Each structure stands twice: as structure tokens, then as C-alpha cells.
């Protein structure tokens, strides 16, 4: 959610949660950069992630070890989330959403990509954020006032998903996993506009599908090719999901976050977050 120029001045944010869902690149993404609110990740400066040259066997052994570490961490975090006290969860949900809603970078954002929280998956609640965005929608192509909301839709089992624009909660339907997502067409039959732990270095771990990593990498490549401002990648995270720095193992395909929002406040990670969150 951020940067400047009428179309360029339209800020965008991506909100991310710990869970990875299938997602494919938007077909007609406006030349304005989204702030992505995403499912809980891990946090560590990209500069802290290095990959040395290895032969094929060494690389395979290394990746096998990384995937094994990720599986173990997912299991540990899932158990912790399942055991989380309901009152504490509710308190942290409210605190995290308040921290987002009160942030100048959220208030100035005009295009947002956000996940629809699923309580069965123990995801940070996004209902208040969605309500705020949908109560003040952008009209037509006018993004100088109001906000435009895009939410993920799983396309297939090959880690592809799209972000589709919705104007109300009724635009959402439950998929086979009982997760709400937009139908590919609206009520008039028109195709919609496209648009589990974190550490303190920007790293994130999802549920193993690679959907968010695939989508975000493609979007970043598209933004670079079209000279758009890169989206700001922001994850919402319960306290217990934030790991110590570099606890989360990564591969070259993993996309790092720009910032985390925890119950205690916003944690900027990348230089882009440090600059944009001054606003």
C-alpha cells in the first residue's frame, strides 16, 4: 500500500497470514502498488539470507534439510495455536487490527490485498479490517477517495492463485476447504477485476503450498517490468508466531516480508517499510 503519483500516488498493501493459499498473478493490476496484508510470516532482513554455490547432491541434501525443519516448525506452531487461550486470542485479534487501522500507511492506502481469516485455521482475525475497507469503497476508477479490496482465490493445485476485487462480503463463497474466496464472476456475470510463523528478519513460513510465494514473486516481477512501485508486504501475527531471528529456514523461492503487525505494534523490517511507514 504505498508511493506517489495519481495512479502512482495510490498506495497499496498486501496483508498476509501464516497460511499459504493458492494464488495466481492478477490479470489487470492497476499501475499502482498494493499493500499486501498476508498470513503470519517470519521476519529477517533479506541481506541476512545468503545461499552458497553447491553441486546438485549438496543442494538436494540442503533443501531436504530445510523442508524437514519447516515441517517440524509448522507442527510446533500449529500445536501452540491450537492450545492458545480463547480470551488471549480475542485480545490479540483486536490489538492487531487496531494497530493496522490506526496506522497512517493503512489509512492512506487505496488498493489492498487481504486474506479472509479462517478461525478453524487459527488465523489472525481480519473482519474489522475488511469491514473498514468495504465501508469506504472506491467508486469506479476513482481511487483518490475510498479503498479497493482484493482477496485471494485458489486457481488450481499448482500453487496458482489470483487476487480478485470484491465490493461486499456477499461476493465471497466457501471453497472445498471452507475458506471464503471470491467467485470468478460477480452477480451480473461479469469477470472480476484482478488486482505459519515469522521470524525477526522478514522470513515467513506458510502451510507448505507455496501459493503466496508464487503469487508475490510474479507480482514483484510484473511491478518491476512495468515500473510500478513494489507492494508493501505486511503480515499479521500472534505473539507466539514470531520467532527469533533466522529461526525459520528459507529457500531461494521464499519471499521475505516488509513488516509485521503484532499485538504490541508494527515491526518494520525492510528499508521500504522504514520509509513508507514514516507517513
UniProtKB/TrEMBL annotation:
EC number: 6.3.3.2
GO cellular component assignments: mitochondrion
Protein's GO biological process: folic acid-containing compound biosynthetic process; tetrahydrofolate interconversion
Record's keyword terms, sorted: ATP-binding, Ligase, Magnesium, Metal-binding, Nucleotide-binding
Entries under InterPro entries matching the protein: FTHF_cligase, FTHF_cligase-like_sf, NagB/RpiA_transferase-like
One of the record's GO molecular function terms: ATP binding
Name of the molecule in the record: 5-formyltetrahydrofolate cyclo-ligase
Amino acid at each position: 500500500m504505498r508511493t506517489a503519483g495519481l495512479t502512482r500516488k495510490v498506495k497499496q498493501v498486501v496483508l498476509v497470514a501464516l497460511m499459504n493459499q493458492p494464488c495466481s498473478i492478477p490479470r489487470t493490476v492497476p499501475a499502482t502498488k498494493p499493500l499486501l496484508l498476508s498470513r503470519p510470516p517470519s521476519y529477517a532482513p533479506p541481506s541476512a539470507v545468503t545461499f552458497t554455490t553447491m553441486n546438485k547432491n549438496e543442494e538436494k541434501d540442503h533443501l531436504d534439510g530445510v523442508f524437514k525443519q519447516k515441517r517440524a516448525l509448522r507442527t510446533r506452531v500449529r500445536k501452540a495455536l491450537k492450545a492458545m487461550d480463547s480470551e488471549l486470542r480475542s485480545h490479540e485479534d483486536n490489538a492487531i487490527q487496531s494497530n493496522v487501522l490506526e496506522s497512517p500507511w493503512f489509512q492512506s492506502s487505496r488498493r489492498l490485498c487481504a486474506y479472509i481469516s479462517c478461525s478453524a485455521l487459527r488465523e489472525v482475525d481480519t473482519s474489522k479490517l475488511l469491514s473498514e475497507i468495504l465501508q469506504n469503497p472506491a467508486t469506479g476508477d476513482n481511487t483518490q477517495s475510498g479503498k479497493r479490496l482484493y482477496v485471494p482465490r485458489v486457481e488450481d493445485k499448482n500453487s496458482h492463485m489470483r487476487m480478485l476485487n470484491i465490493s461486499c462480503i456477499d461476493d465471497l463463497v466457501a471453497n472445498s476447504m471452507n475458506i471464503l474466496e471470491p467467485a470468478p464472476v460477480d452477480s451480473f456475470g461479469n469477470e472480476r477485476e484482478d488486482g505459519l510463523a515469522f521470524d525477526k528478519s522478514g522470513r515467513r513460513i506458510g502451510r507448505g503450498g507455496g501459493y503466496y510465494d508464487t503469487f508475490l514473486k510474479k507480482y514483484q516481477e510484473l511491478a518491476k517490468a512495468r515500473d510500478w512501485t513494489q507492494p508493501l508486504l505486511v503480515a499479521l501475527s500472534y505473539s507466539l508466531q514470531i520467532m527469533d531471528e533466522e529461526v525459520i529456514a528459507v529457500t531461494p523461492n521464499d519471499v521475505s516480508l516488509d513488516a509485521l503487525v503484532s499485538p504490541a505494534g508494527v515491526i518494520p523490517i525492510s528499508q521500504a517499510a522504514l520509509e513508507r511507514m514514516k507517513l
